[in-house]
Amino acid sequence: MGCVQAKSSSSSSPPRIEKLKSDHGYVSGSSAGRLPPRPRSVAAEVLTERESPAPLPPLRQISPGEDELVDGWPRWLVNNIPRDVLAGLVPKSADSYIKIDKVGQGTYSNVYKARDRDSGKIVALKKVRFDTAEPESVKFMAREIMILQKLDHPNVLKLEGLATSRMHYSLYLVFDFMQSDLTTVISHPAKRLVEPQIKCYMHQLLSGLQHCHERGILHRDIKGSNLLIDKNGVLKIGDFGLANYFNPKKKRPLTNKVVTLWYRAPELLLGSTDYGVAIDLWSTGCLLAEMFFGRPIMRGRTEIEQLHRIFKLCGSPSGDYWKRFKLSENFRQTYKPTILEAFKDLPLSSQSLITVLLALEPYNRGTAESALQSEVRTIMIQL
Ligand code: ADP
Ligand code: MG
Question: In sequence order, what are the residues at sequence separation of 6 or more whose Cβ sits closer than 8 angstroms to the Cβ of residue 256?
């Protein structure tokens, strides 16, 4: 699978609701359904759940009247989420897809490869948890959909629609089907990525991230399995389940319990709640190095061990850093930076980008835009 630059996608306007109802298999009938009872609760727990997957719970009975349709959507959905979440989305019935295979299982989602019965198109259906009795679960699900709706970039996985079941509380996010993901590509036993491929994936990741950050969205879970790759080698950032809005001019506290441990920035491990784009750039730096080495570079088993590994690589933090993050005595030892030695065999341009992205100080990591610019400068020098 080669790595290529993506072309811009075009968006189409939603067709009329009445036509949709008949086109997508919505017919009247009696209610009998079930609902997943155990949702995500607070973000901290979301991550804990995320790191120790549990099977999806059994479904619950649907209440009478909730199987009616409102503008093409089941009443149980309309009654439970803000209307603007659904604006611009085409209501489809889950019955209009044939599931072919389960391709991914997270803690609060199952992802299926499926075929659209009408068009024959192969899609990915991400079944998300939804429990009307648990407002937090509804909030998280609505946030993921709203964030996906705000994004439109060739390197960001586009939400193509929502499919629901009238008889069950089942909600599926519909995406184009992607052949692979970056973890699978990196860990291929026989094929180590070569420099031009790594640069190409990095360029796409940074372009997608730049778009998210420009739109005021932090991804908060950048890692290989959330970066999907299509059959042409186009990389798209997916899984916005932990993403959130941010405004650097109007900061509000955000939970630090985000990002999978091996890709988590030091400021998050130290409890920061006023972080910004730099947390996604740290994860990007970890991935850049991972692409060269063929495996994750810092595999801590606990948050403390992860911090030790970070300081071993980057060296002791400055006195100011100590004060700002109230570092405990556990870390009062001199760490000699090993970053230059660790990456000495990498191409020079990548060495310097990794050093910037893996800076202990968040403000030294720059932005996705500055990383893209430095990449362009390097290519110009090489020409
Ligand atoms: P979770 O929140 O459970 O991690 P993801 O959105 O990351 O959900 O999806 C879980 C897995 O399903 C991904 O790591 C990937 O392997 C697979 N997957 C997700 N979206 C697609 C897609 N559009 N095409 C193919 N596979 C996908
Ligand atoms: Mg995921």
Answer: 267, 268, 269, 271, 272, 273, 275
* Rounded Cα gap, residues 324 and 244, in angstroms: 24
Which CATH number describes the domain made up of 69-176?
3.30.200.20
Question: In terms of residues, how long is the chain?
Answer: 383
**Start-to-end CA span in the chain (Å):** 26
Residue entry with tokens 């991804």: 219
Residue ranges of E strands in 67-130:
69-70, 73-74, 91-93, 97-105, 109-116, 122-128
* CATH match for 15-34+179-382 among 1.10.510.10, 3.40.50.2300, 2.60.40.10, 3.40.630.30: 1.10.510.10
CB burial of residue 117 (10 Å; 0-12, 13-18, 19+): middle
What local confidence, expressed as pLDDT, does residue 326 receive?
Answer: 80
Is the CB of 126 inside a 6 Å radius of any atom of ligand 1?
A: yes
Using a 10 angstrom Cβ sphere, with 0-12 exposed, 13-18 middle and 19 or more buried, the burial of residue 321 is: middle
Q: Minimal CA–CA distance to 228: which of 285, 262, 287, 183?
A: 183
Ligand 1 pocket member 228 (CB < 6 A) = yes
Report pLDDT for 61: 60
Q: What's the whole-model pTM score?
A: 0.85
CB 83 within 8 A of CB 77: no
Q: Residues at the annotated binding site? A: 126
Binding residues for ATP are: 126
Q: What is the pLDDT of residues 243-261, one digit of tens each?
A: 999 998 888 999 999 999 9
Q: Where in the chain is the domain with CATH 1.10.510.10?
A: 15-34+179-382
